[in-house]
Amino acid sequence: MKKLFVFWAVWSAILFLAGDVFANIDQLSNMSAEWIRLPTRNAATDATDIVVYNPAGLTKLSDGFHVNIANQTLSRKPKHTYNLGLPGKGEQSHEQDSVDWFLPNIYTSYKQDKWSLFTGIYIPGGGAVVDYPDGSISTNFISALTVLGSSGAFTGYSNDYLEASSTYLTGTIGGAYSIDDKMSFALGLRYISAKNTLEAGATFTDVLGNSHEYKLDREDTADGFGAILGFNLAPMDKLNLGVRYETKVNLEFETEVNRNDFPAEFGLAEYKGKSRRDFPALFGMGVSYDITPKLMTEVDFSWYFQSDADWGKTTDGRDIADMAGDAWSSGIGLAYQLTPKLQVSTGALYTKFDWKDIAGYYETIGAFEVLYSDNWNLSIGCAYEVKQDVKLNLGLAWTIWKDETIPYNLISQAGLGDASVKTENSTITFALGIDAAF
């Protein structure tokens, strides 16, 4: 029992120290309505959303002021199934089925002759709420250890729940310069303000049958700066190449505990501290080609340098970013000008995670609730010119994650049995936006 209590106390500390809780690993690709309808934008030169995809290509826009405003609505369904081996519990499944209504962006650019100045406010990471009102594997595991580690003070638990959010709000500013009609460069600066929140709790029953409701409410905040480099090359009228590199942004999260009902003797003392969760560097490139005057295709590739970031270490000294490894994505898209005012588009993007230790990474609180695995994104949509130089973008995307069966080592280490967790995940995203030139 003493060994179990010590393990439980260490695990409880992880709950406080994991400032990266519920952050995606880590970047989002869907940062505009144009991307939702055509998920290959690294070589695009046709709209202001290329502020984040191909900033050097902004010199290809017409002279004047350009603005792009959009919002995305996501229906995410991550699901995990497991068996902790607890009496009366059996196999359990938890699925989120709530809607994230708002994932907005705004990009602006001013083009004059060879110069283009740009700004943007967007969310390149997080942007979603994790909501498990009936609990999850994390709340069940922690609650079970709380009961087992209470030396008989508690006989059971119920009504466990978890709600968390992660938002990496980002502002960018920079400029692009065209050396000639074929070649241009861009340089930008971005500022990330990140905030992760967590509310979790459960009701514990003592030996006298009394109920004790314990709640934990905490938030982690960090900010940092990074640079953006861009290059665009158009060797011929029909062909365009776009390249960008985003440097790593150092983020040191500071934890604030707003509420903690857990008794001090159970190991969950008030905690205020700092932990690292850098926003990884990114390299992206794309090639677009006009097959005919009406039909365009683009091929994209992006590499996420996750293993080079500082994501902290586990309690036994393992490097979390190294366990995750890098990730990459590649895709192809097609756009067809159906009428002078209407363009239809479709595309597919595949994302691959280069896991070094997937079971070790999934020991991080919140990993099973969000789910990270190889996935396909399938997109369709259109752009309609409602008036001259004003386009309305509509997009619909379906993302399907690979089903995984992941060993949950902490279960066997705690003496609760030997279990694996089965995961499923899918997301439907709808986007509406407008792109205008003045």
SSE layout and pairings?
Blueprint: H1 2-17, H2 33-37, H3 50-53, E1 64-76, E2 79-82, E3 92-95, E4 99-112, E5 115-122, E6 126-132, H4 137-148, E7 154-178, E8 183-206, E9 211-236, E10 239-246, E11 252-260, E12 274-276, E13 281-290, E14 295-305, H5 320-324, E15 327-337, E16 342-353, H6 358-361, H7 367-370, E17 375-387, E18 390-401, E19 404-407, H8 409-413, E20 420-424, E21 426-437
Antiparallel strand pairs: 1-4, 1-21, 2-3, 2-20, 4-5, 5-7, 6-7, 7-8, 8-9, 9-10, 9-11, 10-13, 11-12, 13-14, 14-15, 15-16, 16-17, 17-18, 18-21, 19-20
Helix pairs in contact: 1-4
Please supply descriptive tags for the structure shown above.
438 residues; mainly beta; Porin; 14-stranded antiparallel barrel; 4-stranded antiparallel beta sheet; elongated; disordered N terminus
Summarize this entry quickly:
The protein has 438 residues and is mainly β. The chain is built from eight helices and 21 strands. Helix content is 13%, strand content 54%.
Describe the structure.
The protein has 438 residues and is mainly β. It has one domain (2-437): Porin (Beta Barrel). The protein is 13% helix and 54% strand. It has eight helices and 21 strands. The protein has a 14-stranded antiparallel β-barrel. Helix 1 runs antiparallel to helix 4. The radius of gyration is 24 Å and the shape is elongated.
Evaluate the radius of gyration. 24 Å
Q: Please, what is the oligomeric state?
A: single chain
Helical content (DSSP H or I, runs of 4+):
10-25%
Query: Any idea how many domains?
Result: 1
Read across the widest sheet, the strand sequence of neighbours is 1-4-5-7-8-9-10-13-14-15-16-17-18-21
Tell me the overall shape. Answer: elongated
Largest sheet: 14 strands, antiparallel, barrel
Query: What separation lies between the terminal Cα atoms?
Result: 71 Å
